Amino acid sequence: MIARILVVDDEPDLELLITQRFRRQIRDGSYSFAFATDGVNALSALDKDPAIDMVVSDINMPRMDGLTLLGKLQERENNPATIIVSAYGDISNVRTAMNRGAFDFVMKPIDFADLEATIAKTLRSVEINRGLQRRQQEAERARAQLARYFSPSLADSLTGVELGAERRVVTSLFTDIAGFTTLAENLEPALIGPLLNEYLTGMTEVVFDHGGTLVKIIGDALNVLFGAPSEQPDHAARAIACAMELDAHAEAFRLRWAEKGVSVGLTRIGVNTGSALVGSFGGGRFFDYTAYGDTINIAARLEAANKQLGTRVCVSGAVVEQMPDFRGRPVGNLMLRGRTEFLPAHEPITVERDAHPHTTAYREAYRLAEACDPGALPAFAALLGQDSNDGLVGFHLKRLLAGQTGVAITLD
Question: For 163-323, which CATH class?
């Protein structure tokens, strides 16, 4: 699908520079550019072509400047995403533009590599928002259809949009691809779309197969709930099984795209169980089924903690307490950012890995570290010699070599 971009600037040579810089995207049909010399002409162009996806506008122009144009755009029903172009030192105008709804800005003299990356990022956001709007509209249409045949309360129940909240014990799961923002900025839009669609399609299918509720997709990241809105007594077990399958799916996905010459980062997953406020929040034409509380925040922080720990999946002790048959390795007692108490954490593993001698040796090395026994260092060193790719072993060995004993771990 072609992206339609309106450039608003009174510099006479900018149109030539833009068409030269983006000649490949124009030639292959990725981008289409239109040009206007001031805000008045820009509004006229938008009236003639409401399908314009985004606007790139200078601030200082005759008749109508960029800030005034930005205000006019916010009044339109389908206002396009806007990038503001401003000279260095004009920070006050940049702040005004951002407060008025600008998506991003670039500085003059224009760094065209930066402009290209900013345009690509903006268009990705536009497409994601359109997808969310389409799904929202579909949900509203579904409710309207149900309301023709059922009572309003039953229609709300069937479409899952009944406003309100309740406190419930749930298991929250977060995923994120390491380095995806950088990857997306460096890949062509024609490639990043199929990559992200394939990834998200597969990941969401796994979530639904395990009975999870997909609360949010933000870029490449997923936020999933188990135990809400429907009752799931085994929500912790479902979440762990889902996390393990998501991990396997993501690793297979990485290998497929590596064969195409695209290096996709690791998918990291965090899981936590606890009480949260869950329900549909909103009103009028908008609603959002989501969850709030420390339980959700901890799951997100465990996902981020994987980066330092050398793991891909990290779950809290609260999850493990719900599962007598949990298979995994103890990670340590983590002090997560923003918290004041240590949190026991574990790495779930497969049946095969659980029975492997390497795992038995790890547990013994961990026991020595927990007891502050000097034998922990050579024990972990021997394990790393057996498997240099074991990130968690490497993490513990690095701590011990730095003189840190025990398993109380404060993360950055």
Answer: alpha beta
Q: Are strands 31-36 and 81-87 parallel, antiparallel or unpaired?
A: unpaired
Query: Is 163-323 in the same CATH topology as 3-124?
Result: no
Tokens of 20: 């030269």
DSSP state of 265: P
Residue 16 CA to residue 277 CA, distance in Å, equals 55
Is the pTM higher than 0.85? no
**105 near 86, Cβ under 8 Å?**
yes
Segment 360-389, tens digit of pLDDT = 999 999 999 999 999 999 999 999 999 889
- CATH number for domain 3-124, candidates 3.40.640.10, 2.40.30.20, 3.50.50.60, 3.40.50.2300: 3.40.50.2300
Of 297, 296, 364, which is closest to residue 330 (Cα–Cα)?
364
Q: Give kind and range of the element (H or E) at residue 160.
A: none
Asked whether 225 and 275 are in contact (CB, 8 A), the reply is no
Single-letter residue type at 1: M
Side-chain half-sphere of 307: how many Cα atoms within 13 Å?
Answer: 13
- Local structure of residue 163 (DSSP, 8 states): B
> CB neighbours of 150 closer than 8 A, spacing ≥ 6?
158
Residue spans per domain, the chain: 3-124, 163-323, 330-412
291 vs 345: CA distance, rounded Å: 22
∠ CA 61-66-71, rounded to 5°: 145
pLDDT per residue over 166-213, tens digit each? Answer: 889 999 999 999 998 888 888 888 888 899 999 999 999 999 889 888
